[in-house]
Amino acid sequence: MSDMARVKKVELHLHLEGAAQPDFIRQIAFEKKVDLSGIFTAQGGYDIHDFVHFLRVYEAATSVLTTPEDYARLTRSVLEASAGHGVVYCETFLSPDFCGGGDIGAWREYLSAMTEAADAAERDFGITMRGVITAVRHFGPDQAKRAARCAAETAGRMICGFGMAGDEKIGHVRDFSWSFDCAAEAGLPFTIHAGEWGGAQSVRETLDAYNPPRIGHGVEAISDPDLVARLADTGVVLECCPVSNVFLGVFPNWKSHPLASLREAGVKVTVSTDDPPFFHTNMSREYEALEQHFGWAETEFTEINQTALAAAFCDEETRARVAKRLES
Ligand code: ADE
Ligand code: ZN
What we know:
Layout: H1 3-6, E1 9-15, H2 22-31, H3 51-62, H4 68-84, E2 87-94, H5 104-125, E3 128-136, H6 141-154, E4 159-165, H7 177-185, E5 190-194, H8 199-210, E6 214-217, H9 225-234, E7 237-240, H10 242-248, H11 259-264, E8 268-271, H12 283-294, H13 298-311, H14 316-327
Parallel strand pairs: 1-2, 2-3, 3-4, 4-5, 5-6, 6-7, 7-8
Helix pairs in contact: 4-5, 6-7, 13-14
The chain binds adenine and zinc ion (ZN).
């Protein structure tokens, strides 16, 4: 175990399908006799050229996961790997679109399988998982309504938030107001991907539309000092995924990544992996990079984990349990 794996961590931004190792997807494709060879490199990793291509590869890999049992296996394997990197609590983005196409009866079966697997992983590996139902922006507002209905119907111990991911350059965040209203009525807080590809304007539009307590990424806010001040003043938490951003080219390198500058400006930042095997990362590697490029150490790691735990959407009893684990 590396030294960084020993640091206890809270992760708020992890797409469940995006955490599937290539070997895991290959094994399921083999069992189902599906040919997925086109999405892998000769070395066996995911073959990705740019962000939009990444979304296609992600959806192709996900297409072999067709049953609740597949998602139970995925949940266990992802949580075991995360726990191995010191993660004690993780919020995963779950999409009913991929789990029964938005049908509520099917979604309940997938959710029940994932919940059982997550509860077993908590007993076996000491990691707690909670789910944030995530609409996929490029699937459009009508499909998002199905995801929102699934979220509203199954809100509870496991499903504790609602959000949106996908291609931020498509449509406007306000096009999805029906879905966000539906989730809000069920009492679910939001985290919405913005400022990964849509610029500072996208972050501003998202804050103006829904006032979410958390933003997925948000890092492009750095180009607008007034917006950075607004984020700092209002205490909106950014789920930053620096390796993902550098890998996909949101910023060309670590030197130009604004994570440390945002923190210095008083913005509440946290660190997550997004889709770890797609970007050749894990939580230990993220922290190693923070140490190497920003000189971060125990003080900063404690701060980002406390920020993340305070911003987690879980119930208070879970938060208190995780807080003890984080301290131990
Ligand atoms: N879905 C999975 N990963 C994503 C990302 N980084 N941005 C938007 N949508 C995603
Ligand atoms: Zn994401």
